[in-house]
């Protein structure tokens, strides 16, 4: 699955500048939720420790509160900015690719680019959240890495299955006896949901372990809150990855992107 993602990435964005721009966009998009965890850490500290400081000396809270709102504004601003810039970055990358695609094919290439970026963002965020856990509590972080790897393996199996299904749909078309549209869409949605269920189930194990360490005092309360929120977001991203990878499989089959060479040439799957 990972190799297919990077093959498509090189095929869509054929110049070094366009790849660097898209990679930077993906990294910033993925980093925003992780940065928001630091903002939540600041907020939880203000809530847990602020009342005592407020009662003793209100002026000591001025700087922490200002820093919190500044960090909050920066992270939310970055969140909206990268979404606004995404279309511009993709368009510029397509313009320098040198391909002359038909309008119908170009539409699928745009869909492929959006699905690819969403999948890569989810993967990068999974890595970032895992790194965040290592900064807070390494035993929980190790268990989280094992759990995330299990989910990614399951999602990769779903991807191969869905890609084969989508390629078969293209071969049979809509002639009599071929799978109905409802069956095709329903199968893709079920595959996506299976991956999401797997992510939720595996992450419960990590949550139970983290809760035990918090109850035994191994993890401070404020850090436990942040880890819970981060784990919830990580589980959500892995679920989003499962849904995104099935849509990516459909767009890959429609554009023939699986066979793209690094030069950007493509063979349309028949």
UniProtKB/TrEMBL annotation:
Can you tell which superkingdom this protein's organism belongs to? Bacteria
Q: Which InterPro entries does the annotation name?
A: ABC1_TM_sf (IPR036640)
Location relative to the cell = Cell membrane
> Does the entry feature the keyword Membrane, yes or no?
yes
Q: Which residues form a coiled coil?
A: none
One Gene Ontology cellular component annotation held by this UniProt entry:
plasma membrane
Q: Which UniProt keywords apply?
A: Membrane, Transmembrane, Transmembrane helix
Kindly report the protein's main subcellular placement as a broad class. Answer: membrane
The way it spans or sits in the membrane comes to: Multi-pass membrane protein
What does the record give under GO molecular function? ATP binding
Annotated membrane-spanning segments are: 21-41, 61-82, 110-135, 141-159, 194-212, 224-245
Please state what the protein is called: Uncharacterized protein
Q: Which organism is it from?
A: Streptomyces aidingensis
């Amino acid at each position: 699955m990972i190799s297919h993602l990077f093959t498509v990435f090189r095929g869509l964005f054929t110049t070094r500048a366009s790849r660097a721009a898209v990679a930077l966009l993906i990294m910033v998009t993925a980093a925003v939720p992780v940065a928001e965890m630091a903002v939540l850490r600041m907020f939880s500290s203000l809530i847990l420790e602020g009342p005592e400081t407020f009662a003793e000396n209100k002026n000591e809270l001025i700087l922490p509160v200002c820093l919190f709102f500044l960090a909050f504004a920066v992270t939310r601003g970055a969140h909206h900015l990268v979404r606004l810039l995404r279309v511009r970055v993709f368009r510029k990358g397509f313009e320098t690719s040198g391909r002359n695609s038909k309008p119908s094919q170009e539409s699928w290439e745009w869909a492929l680019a959006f699905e690819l970026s969403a999948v890569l963002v989810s993967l990068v965020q999974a890595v970032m959240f895992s790194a965040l856990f290592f900064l807070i509590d390494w035993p929980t972080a190790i268990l989280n890495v094992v759990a995330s790897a299990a989910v990614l393996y399951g999602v990769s199996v779903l991807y191969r299955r869905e890609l084969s299904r989508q390629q078969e749909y293209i071969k049979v078309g809509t002639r009599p006896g071929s799978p109905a549209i409802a069956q095709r869409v329903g199968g893709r949605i079920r595959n996506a949901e299976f991956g999401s269920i797997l992510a939720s189930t595996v992450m419960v194990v990590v949550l139970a372990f983290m809760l035990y360490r918090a109850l035994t005092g191994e993890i401070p309360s404020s850090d436990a809150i942040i880890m819970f929120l981060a784990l919830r977001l990580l589980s959500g991203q892995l679920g989003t990855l499962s849904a995104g990878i099935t849509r990516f499989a459909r767009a890959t089959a429609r554009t023939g992107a699986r066979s793209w060479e690094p030069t950007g040439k493509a063979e349309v799957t028949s």
